[in-house]
Specification:
Blueprint: H1 2-10, E1 38-42, E2 45-49, H2 55-75, H3 82-96, E3 98-100, E4 106-108, E5 114-116, H4 117-127, H5 135-147, H6 149-159, E6 160-161, E7 164-174, E8 180-191, E9 202-204, E10 208-219, H7 221-224, H8 228-235, H9 238-241, E11 243-246
Parallel strand pairs: 2-7
Antiparallel strand pairs: 1-2, 1-11, 3-10, 4-10, 5-9, 6-7, 7-8, 8-10
Length: 248
């Protein structure tokens, strides 16, 4: 366990980790989110929670994934070092208590000539074993993001880099034992032009190249509890600076 604490302490964040957050998290006294579906923008990730996840589990998901998102972005340029970024990100999550299947970033060809990337992301989620259970909350999250410009601005500001966009779509559930299951869909889109938004616009198949890695990941909350405080301390104010809540 000391090796994992040393690993967390060694992580560094990019200078852009000082951008202010756009919306404060709910009060710690407010437990209503446990009784309903919820979703947040977390940097270049869209994270959604099916009703029933307790507050601690939601915070654990957000903190662990943000930690590795920032650390991977400090070490690698995700626009030009896609595989290195993804490998460091997922290997770090594994050290924190996530169990992930090995799944490299692979080229993905949509089955339509014209498409939007939000629809492509939903198609990918549906194609993963058990993914259909996550599709409804992921679809509602996209619909909410479309209607909330402040959150969309935050998301696009972190996932876009010139003509390359890299982002994660991560719907989550929790079992009776308290462990969290997440369908982690990491995507990178290389566009012919940098003048086009990455979501909610129609692309032709020859306009973009799409790479994706979709897998089911499980967070062992008992294992993560041993590093929880170290993760929180390492993140500091960044735990809120990258966060915007979505109204579903």
């Amino acid at each position: 366990m000391s090796d994992i604490h040393d690993f967390i302490a060694s992580l560094q964040f990019p200078d852009t980790a000082q951008r202010p957050f756009l919306q404060s998290p709910p009060s710690q006294a407010d437990n209503s989110t446990r009784r309903s579906d919820s979703a947040v923008v977390l940097g270049d990730s869209l994270v959604s929670f099916v009703s029933g996840l307790d507050r601690q589990a939601r915070e654990d998901v957000l903190n662990s994934t943000l930690l590795m998102q920032l650390a991977a972005s400090k070490r690698f340029d995700k626009a030009s070092q896609r595989e290195e970024w993804f490998n460091f990100y997922t290997e770090g999550l594994g050290k924190l208590g996530w169990t992930l299947s090995h799944n490299e970033m692979q080229r993905y060809q949509p089955n339509r000539q014209a498409f939007t990337l939000d629809d492509v992301a939903l198609d990918i989620i549906d194609s993963v074993a058990g993914g259909s259970a996550f599709a409804p909350i992921a679809r509602r999250t996209f619909e909410a993001l479309r209607k909330q410009p402040h959150a969309l601005q935050l998301f696009l500001g972190h996932c876009n880099n010139g003509n390359v966009g890299t982002f994660q779509i991560m719907p989550c559930t929790q079992n009776a034992e308290g462990d969290v299951t997440m369908l982690m869909n990491c995507m990178q889109v290389v566009r012919n032009s940098s003048n086009t938004s990455i979501l909610f616009v129609t692309f032709q198949s020859n306009d973009v190249q799409i790479f994706r890695a979709a897998q089911t990941a499980v967070l062992n909350t008992q294992a993560y509890s041993q590093v929880r405080e170290a993760v929180i301390a390492k993140l500091g104010d960044n735990a809120n600076r990258f966060l915007a809540h979505l109204s579903l």
